[in-house]
Amino acid sequence: MKTPRQPTLAQLRAFVAVAEHLHFRDAAAATGASQPALSAAVAALEEVLGMRLLERTTRRVLLTQPGERLAARARAVLEAVGELLEEADAVRAPFTGALRLGVIPTVAPYLLPTVLALVRRRYPDLDLQVHEEPTAALLDGLAAGRLDLLLLAVPLGLPTITELPLFDEDFVLVVPDGHRLAGREDIPRSELRELDLLLLSEGHCLRDQALDVCREAGRPDGTPVTTSAAGLSTLVQLVAGGLGTTLLPRTAVRVEVARGGRLATGAFRQPAPSRRIALAMRSGAARAEEFAAFAGALREDLRPLPVRIAD
């Protein structure tokens, strides 16, 4: 029995490039191939598959209906091949190649200096690529294979993701200088019931965590919460201007309070409200051992920070 011919990866790459650009010249420039070579590869793929994938005119290129359907399949095949090669590289040489790390905005400015110093010192052959995005976008990126590892607040409660806890940190109340709670070390959570509270905008996990803390303190759900900022730096500036108070994770206090001016802090009575920060990876990831070792090294380097290192 004659074995059917199969497409080559070069043919699939050529087709995907043309499908994305709908122009042979632009696709050739993007792939570094010549237009004749690209056209020949697509024509060979059409012959192998026994169907037309493109409609060629003097001005433009259009995908046929089969072409539209098969373009998505071709992309998936190329992505799977890329993942195969990445996994082979990881097995062959841990802590080399690319590591695409996603970080939430309320962690990135305060922990990245430690992460970057660790990579420079211990893993000089690791190509660390940092992506700062909200939690939802990071989780989508991890699931799609766009990201390898996340640094964010947990628990996530997702069976497809394995969490590698790093530390717990308390929340600190930030108030204008001269506020009645300024400098207090034993603030009861019940104070959160009536305070004018400034929080991050929708989509930030820190906002949801702060609201959970308020609910646990007995703050009614209907109590107004002013949402005025997309970042912690703006929040503390609003507090410094006398518009209210806010909650900061302790790792952010030194940077943000010093930057804001006219600010003071107060600590909650123990056990204080807190959050847990962890690395997160796809369950069953090929680089699981490497990521676990990275988490262990990072825990050690995070010990000087005002946090409680996870066991």
UniProtKB/TrEMBL annotation:
Recorded GO CC terms: protein-DNA complex
CDD domains named among the record's database cross-references: PBP2_OxyR
Keywords tagged on the record: Activator, DNA-binding, Transcription, Transcription regulation
Protein name: Probable hydrogen peroxide-inducible genes activator
Keyword Iron: no
Alphabetized InterPro entries for the sequence: LysR_HTH_N (IPR000847), LysR_subst-bd (IPR005119), WH-like_DNA-bd_sf (IPR036388), WH_DNA-bd_sf (IPR036390)
UniProt record similarity statement: Belongs to the LysR transcriptional regulatory family.
Pfam families: HTH_1, LysR_substrate
GO MF terms, alphabetically ordered: DNA binding; DNA-binding transcription factor activity
Domain HTH lysR-type: from-to ranges: 7-64
